[in-house]
Here is the input.
Amino acid sequence: MNLLFGAQSPEQYARLAQAVSARFDISPQTAWQNGDSIGGYSKTADDDPIGQAVDTSSGVSLTILGIINLSKRGLASTADADAKIALQAYLDGGIHDLSQLEGQFLIALTDPRNKSLLILPDSNGLRSAYYTENTGQLAYATNLGTLADSCAPHIKPDETYQNFFLSHGFFPFNHTAYEGIKQIPTGHVLIAQNNSVTLRKTEHHNPWAEKLTQLNFESMSEAAIIKLLDQAFDEAIRDQLSPDQKVGVLLGGFDSALVAAYLAKTGKEVHTYSFHYDDASYNQAHTDTVAKHLGCKHHWIPINADTIKRGLKEFDLYFNAPTNWLNYVIQTEEVCRQIRKDGIRHVYSGDGCDAAFLGYPRVHKTSQLFKHLGRWPNGLIQAITKVCDVAWLENLTGRPYTVAMHLLRTLGRDMPERGFLTMRIFDKNSVRHMRHPHYRAAVEDDETLLKKIAAPLAGKSADRIAYGGKGFLSPNRSKIIGSSDSSSVVIQAPYLHPGLKALALHLPDELCRPKENTKSKETGKYILMRMAEINKLLPTAAIYQKKIAAVDAPIDDWLKNDLKTKNQEYLKDLPFTINATFRDALLRKKIPEELHRRYIASDSLTTHGLSLLLTYSRFTRINQPK
Here is the structure.
């Protein structure tokens, strides 16, 4: 297990080191010590992505977890090389120069010259750390559960936004499942100095975004835009290129297949990996045609109920946030374990493509629906939701109840909060039913919080608002970080490269979703697919294949049948007593849910709520009697 941790006191550091040893059965190592401030790490192999560097003249010490994009410098990408580059950036220009580095990393740095400790995530928010002053002084870790364990028995669940989390699937404003533990927000550095802890905003210069503001896409031909997109994609791949000849790709649909195509163009030996289910209807199509076209080797990784059973048991060891798509993150971690066994250190994914190029068909359809539906009077909506506030109705219908209530409540909102979240995990009524008779209302209600969270998206198109909201709920970052730290592979996402991402976000919406009928009308990503077709990067069938949700799996059957007894035990670890009737309904198959899944839902899951509660319980079990 790869992680960084540290504290401002030897006592808290000892508790952290003990937590690492107990959770992962490994002996952590001390990276540096300046005064009472101590930093440590754990890793499982010498070539794992944790690097160190020390400036002997100044005493500045730096540890990095992750990877810096090194291709432009012509250097081999090793952890210690990354650490040396980061340290030199800090010595040359302090925090400013350090924050200009690109990649996927978390840096911990101590400077004895001004007795400061810095914790800096990468500017793209692909990695972060968690910090607390629960014990009186700063402690931090890249793994949330480890930090919480080190604070026991003083730690407890954070109830500030618990009701909101149960409804929407995420904790807002950088809160976590634990009271007093927060995440360092993207674009900030944590500074501990002179017995104080502050968060300072960093200024990151994105040369790609600056260049793009000078372009007028409306006057450019499709051929010119495709050429620009091809150049940006190629640069993103080469900027993240592994020094190893052998690389892996987490192969789903078109998005990741295109990544594999660009990697193959560089001459890499590409190995693609996909989930394999006994029910073939869930297996990814066109893997053979992609492998033949690119000359790569494809691997199927078996996924079954036992995979989910192990992943749930160990969930908080690797992942940092509960999710309503538990199978997706657990299965990815399982695949990455096999990739590492196959001797591959660097893996690539298609994460970020749908959000940047307006994929996710159901998000688009829902955003357009919300855009065109009229606004209903709040009084009418309150009256209808009150009539529907009966537990037996929800227990009978399940997921369709939440979907219907979400649509109804949306009709009483204005933009941007109206189009911000296109799905809901549990309705406000559901949370009350779930916690009856011990329900407690939150200090701030959902509508007030939604307005605050969605406010930065004001003025954007309905699609961009919806895709912006999707990012809050998406498990992709937690999936990438957890799978990488667990398996000791580096996972790169070219679509999240600052250059390619900036280009995608500057494109007019019509280039991703044209109004006229096209081959990509259902899936979006028009200009990206046209580029792949014109440049013959992939077979046509693989480019315009039907969009299958990456989360699709027989998870409903596994959770409600194979793992039902174990899941009942896990639900006892929640920080509140779940209503028994509500619990039993969650674990029972229902005809309305089956009809919803078959004819309405964008994925094959009706267990979003159950998944969220089960993964949440793995974090809150720390408070249960041993």
